[in-house]
Amino acid sequence: MVVGRFAPSPTGPLHFGSLVAAVASYCDAKSQGGLWWLRIEDVDQTRRVAGVSANIIQTLQRYGFTWDGEIVYQSQRDQYYEAALAQLRQLGLAYACTCSRKEIADSSTLHGIEGVIYPGTCLQHPTKPDTPAAWRIKTDRSPIGFADPIQGHQQNNMATDIGDFVIKRADGLFSYQLAVVVDDALQGVTHVVRGADLLNSTTRQIYLQQLLGYPTPAYAHIPLVLNADGQKLSKQTLATALPDDNIVATLIAALVFLQQPLPDNALSLPLAHLWQWAFAHWQLPKITSD
Ligand SMILES: [Zn+2]
Question: What is the CATH number of domain 79-168?
Fold first, then answer.
């Protein structure tokens, strides 16, 4: 059974880039007769904007998406993330860290794919008393790779490209990486289709899956929708919210972006028919990385 999911963060209303990601994962799952979950990734409660989750759900409904089962909210799942952290601690794979950002920047000499690599200070020295601790996962030099059907083979050396990364922050919030891995495993997700902005996260997620004894889903990362200035559409780049009207035309634009074929009379089709046609003709290999 194929199980896919769409997992928006409620930091702003859905824009065309988020629609493209939703369409891709939806068609990928439904074209294979699979299930498709909706998960609201509100684990980082400092970035949550009131009312946005409800707005995202309404927009998806308006565009004709139907998800299977109940909507999952990461903000309600700390117990599962806590259990995974306990498992990693028991295995001796996670350790507390009381270093400040500045201390790390001052003491690290290595740069990875996302900035300075944590030098392992708190592995070698006692942590500071009375200081809230983050939890880091130990990394090693074994390479982690996967075959992406759109982006090609991807590989990272966890120790030299990433370093010991945070799985629970000092403010008590679980990291995106841990929450996603736990949820994908508990929800039985087999196929992750998402935007290429998350390409750098995937090896970390596979590494955590291996440490926790979880299966690794198939991953495909679709190209990002860019604005006229070449920036990724996002709240930061002031991407406009999806329109409430012209839904069929907007959905067609998303399918065109994903290099999918269209029926002759696409614009005059009822929404439900367009979806059925999209499932029947969906071909992930048509998507190219540029
Ligand atoms: Zn530290």
Answer: 3.40.50.620
